[in-house]
Amino acid sequence: MRLVQFREQEVCMDSENGKKALTESELIDRQVEEIMTDEESAEGGKRKKKRRKKARSGEKPSLKERWKGYSRKRKIITVVVVLAAAAFLLSRCGGGEKGPVAVPVNVMSLTRQPIKEKLSVSGPVSGTDSVDVVSNIHAEIITMNVKEGDKVTKDQILAVLDKTDLERDLQVAQNAYDLAVVNKQEKDKSEALGYEKATQDLRKAQADYNRNSALYAAGDISQVEMEQAANALNDAKRQVEGYNVVNGRGAADASYELQVQNAAIDLEKKKEELENAEIKSTIDGTVVRVNSKVGQFADKVEDDKPIFSIENLDQLEMEIKISEYSIGKVQVGQTAVISADILDGETVEGEIIKISPTGEEKGGGSTERVIPTTIRIDGTNSKLIAGITAKAEILIRESEDAFVVPVTALIDDGEATYIAVVEEQKVRRIPVTLGVDGDVNVEVIPADGSEFTEGMQVILNPGPMTVDGALVTVLPQM
């Protein structure tokens, strides 16, 4: 139905020119006539053809006849539209001598009911623990023991590599280590003997020097002989100082020890490589991807993918990103309802178990930050699988017994928020604070000592004319 647009100049006349405002009855008659004419032009089928026929023959139905042909619902809608328009125009004209005209309003009865505030997010589903199994050993895979979907345990052998070259390399490394150890041992032995002889020579040279000093003082030997004894003592000291001494024994220098250490490191590496020729799982879980096969080299998987991907699917999680504008409402322990296409309309429960202490960029050129958050999904018999995207509705807060109104019923004047109620055909604004936000509906709590009573008539779409004390007419509910 098309709403008729009133032209104010057609209704309000200049009283100074001897004209007056149309009466309410005249206004309604005119608008009903226009509405019916519009409806008549919009109808189709046989009825439309019949009316056109009458129009051509000059037998246009009267207003009364057309009104009788309307359904009850159509009559109510027509009258509501006309009354609303008429009331508005008459109020603009000042109402003549009849006083203020009541503003038509739609209302609802204020009742207590449950309401929930939820936050909808989405993210990928994954296992609680996962690992990519790779190998840096250049050896051919000769055995694959598992396939996708197999459950595995920690240290279970997944695949076996060709050990021929690895065993040879290990033997070479073992020989190099053994040789380094032998060389050090022999050097330790020779150095110990050399150091022992050098200390004996030093003691002898020291004794000779002491005896010659006494003889020289008595004039029994020449100065040349005295100098020879001193030189022999200095040579003996230099010999002793040239040895590497460990715990009072001569020992091989640090280079021999370094050779042994390097050989030991290489030997350990070769042992580890041989051990890793049996590729094992590091966690309990399920093999979700196998990216190689028998005959391929373990370190040359296509596109640098892992040989195996394993996840613990016994406990699933959702990784979601929550806006910085909403994270203040989210807390560890809040519940969530999980849904996904794979569930065929069913849902599963979840719980927030972790919120990152730092945010990150949302991406896509946005300056907004998001906070990674983890939801643990309850139950092990769910149809959910890892690798899909699911939707989660996080329950922020709820109230089981709240006064609830549509958000369109709120009035915000910049300083406070109100709802408008009808009492004895007049408007009364009640200040409120907002509680649980249910998106379409919201919990309202009376403020400033005000009170609510169940059954109060709350105006659904208050406008600028619904001020305190304004006269109103409650329209019938459809």
TrEMBL record:
Basic and acidic residues bias spans: 56-65
Taxonomy, superkingdom: Bacteria
Record's GO cellular component terms: efflux pump complex
Stored NCBIfam families: RND_mfp
Entry annotated with the keyword Coiled coil: yes
Annotated YknX-like beta-barrel domain residues: 319-394
Protein name: Efflux transporter, RND family, MFP subunit
Coiled coil: 226-280
InterPro entries: Beta-barrel_YknX, MdtA-like_BSH, RND_pump_MFP
GO MF, any single term: efflux transmembrane transporter activity
Skewed-composition ranges (Basic residues): 46-55
Multidrug resistance protein MdtA-like barrel-sandwich hybrid domain sequence ranges: 130-301
UniProt-annotated stretches for the region Disordered: 32-65
The keyword Coiled coil is annotated on this UniProt entry: yes
Swiss-Prot/TrEMBL keywords: Coiled coil
Pfam families: Beta-barrel_YknX, BSH_RND
Similarity comment text for this entry: Belongs to the membrane fusion protein (MFP) (TC 8.A.1) family.
